[in-house]
């Protein structure tokens, strides 16, 4: 059975204005896929609509020959860090334990099995020493790793992350991308809304280039081209990338 996610003719509108229009693409299983495009291109909208987190105007999203919502537990979503309530009185371990709730339900409390799972997930992201720390005390990179641990506790097959590297230091970003690559190598499927084009070739196997409409998608080597970038961003951005790559090569 095909484990890819099929997005067909997906459109979303806000207050009558199109956010994304008629998007057709396939998100490949067991890959690290980036979604890129200029500000306002609809990247987060595409991700949220695919997961059923916001209403769509049109289209279908299927997985394992069924509507994706029939397999919702196989999908974990990590929202933008800026949307988190850091004043909420919960510690790091409590946040990760929340990832077990979709399986145990809201009525039954997590038991020993779930707590052991949450601890293993904290170990995987290297934050067991922070287990009792309130989430508002963490750095941006630490908080992002906690959210990833919570997603791991869901024991999902797919991980969707919305701008996970915004506002974190370079060392934390490297730690997180290395962990995501490890998860991919273990058979997980990962989709990331991303903004830094200089990292695309290093980070991703496949790429979705969007600007309200789909510009291109597929393997990075075939998709991340000057022609496609000009269609998505205009000529100015392609020159910026060339300059950035020259700088990085020095």
TrEMBL record:
Keyword field: ATP-binding, Nucleotide-binding, Transport
The UniProt entry, under InterPro entries, shows: AAA+_ATPase, ABC_transporter-like_ATP-bd, ABC_transporter-like_CS, Metal_Ion_Import_ABC, P-loop_NTPase
> Where does the ABC transporter domain start and stop, copy by copy?
5-237
Domain of life, source organism: Bacteria
GO MF entries:
ATP binding
Q: Which PROSITE patterns match?
A: ABC_TRANSPORTER_1, ABC_TRANSPORTER_2
Q: Which family is this protein grouped under?
A: Belongs to the ABC transporter superfamily.
Kindly provide the name given to this protein in its UniProt entry. Answer: Metal ABC transporter ATP-binding protein
